[in-house]
Amino acid sequence: MTEECVFCKIVENKLPSTKVYENSDFVVIKDINPVAPIHYLVLPKRHIPSVLKIDQEFPSNALFETIKRVAQKEGFSERGFRIVINTGPDALQSVNHLHVHIIAGRKLGWPPG
């Protein structure tokens, strides 16, 4: 955890958020600036700056299991959803803590905007 990271503060319950799901490795919250009716962020509890810093101890299987459970629990798994990981400034990664966007609740276009 880093003291200046907003997502670390959310994981540690030092900042408010609307939690959707939590397990031993991840916290899933509602995005405060949603681009669709359903827009969640999957946050690893361990601070990882980006996908480029994932190591062998990162629980990759648990990440996808978490996404699957949230989609089923929230009832949008049948209609479909998009997962997005922004990495670096050109991809508009706004917080240097790995996070996965889950976007659903409407028909999504391409390219994403």
UniProtKB/TrEMBL annotation:
It comes from Candidatus Marsarchaeota G1 archaeon OSP_D. A motif (Histidine triad motif) lies at residues 97-101. GO terms for molecular function: catalytic activity. The active site is at H99 (tele-amp-histidine intermediate). Pfam families: HIT. InterPro entries: Histidine_triad_CS, Histidine_triad_HIT, HIT-like, HIT-like_sf. The lineage of its organism: Archaea, Candidatus Marsarchaeota, Candidatus Marsarchaeota group 1. It comes from the Archaea. Transmembrane segments: none annotated. Signal peptide: none annotated. This is Histidine triad nucleotide-binding protein. PANTHER family: HISTIDINE TRIAD HIT PROTEIN. Residues 6-113 form the HIT domain.
